Amino acid sequence: MKILMLGRWLPVSRRREDATREVRLARQLARSHRLTLAFVTDDPNPVGAISALRAEFEDLEFAVVTRGWKTLSSAVSLATGSSASMAYARSAALAARLRDRLRVDAYHAICVTSSSMIQYALDADPAVPIMMDFAEVDSRWWLRQAGERSFPGANFYRTEAARLRLAELAMARRAARSVVSSASAARSVDTPAGSPPVVVPSGVDVDHFIPALRMPGTSIVLLLSPLESAADVQATAAFCRAAVPATRRRYPGTRFAVVGRNLPLSARDLGRIHGVEVHEHVADIRPLLHRAALAVAPFPSEVSPPTAILEAMCAGLPVVTVADTAADLGARPGADLLVAPAVDACGEPIAQLLGNPTLRAEMGGHAAAFVRARFAWDVTTARLVEMVERVAPPLPSAGATGRAARADLA
Hints:
Layout: E1 2-6, H1 21-32, E2 34-41, H2 47-56, E3 59-64, H3 67-79, H4 84-88, H5 92-105, E4 109-112, H6 118-122, E5 130-135, H7 138-147, H8 153-174, E6 177-180, H9 183-186, E7 198-199, E8 220-223, H10 230-250, E9 255-259, E10 276-279, H11 286-291, E11 294-297, H12 306-314, E12 319-322, H13 323-329, E13 338-340, H14 347-354, H15 357-374, H16 377-391, H17 398-409
Parallel strand pairs: 1-2, 1-4, 2-3, 4-5, 5-6, 6-7, 8-9, 8-11, 9-10, 11-12, 12-13
């Protein structure tokens, strides 16, 4: 099949484990279909990156947008009623080339992986089916940013979220199939009745996050808490003030580790809580995963980072979480992970695991097997490819083509 993929700028990473959901989907599609990648970039000198990308994906359609001018035009667009991020990705030249390609090349399907690129898909021939991968839904990111900012910045983010959501709603109605990466994202996508979005989670590099043999006496509890804002830090601090002293009274010497690559400055204050240590600028979390006894993700899946939970489980670390998160992951409570009835009730399953090394080892093994079976990148990208293939009309078989040719000759 001939497939047009409209997505973000996809510079090829040197590290295999850094490949994004979009890159992995593009690679999987290119193995069995004729793929055209279309995107915009504001890199003023993308020659080297484009060459590397072209070496892997031969057919590219892209436009280079000027960063300064595009920033100004995006602000103007937002002031006049349009989405700033869509304006930033708008290129008349790219739009014209894509219209020509769609008319001449007869694509079987379009795959869209970025809300800012929806505009190009909506201009396409309605006869060409579309699979829209919303992933975590871009407008939700803007809305979260609005909640963390004060006036006037909050208004900008809130307005952009609303404008981008209008485009996402239009695409949800136009697309033959909508896909999201989590159950919480699915709840924010308004699709036509009887056609709910399909949840295809982002995967885990199972060869990167391998299980390790842990010492029975280890007493580090890894805290898998989102720390992107002041509100996140406050919620995590409240949890630690309640859970850490209670745990240390039963198991003295236990340490709770907060880890992040780009933690906000306020996250350092967590280190002032006795028994809590903060690890900043951690590029590779695997050494901590292998030293820890268990991990706790105390907040619901609307808040908790599912990728961090899955990486910990893949590394053989037993995880304590709440029921909503376990349900969204499709995990079995008591087998793949331990479930607490509420955030403030996580202390008991944490103590249960700390006091039972055999249970930790058994649950860690189940957790790793669960992630490898359901969340390996090969598994999740194969499902995404299947979604694209399902929306495309079936190709005529060789026998049908031959019969049609003989009928024409007759």
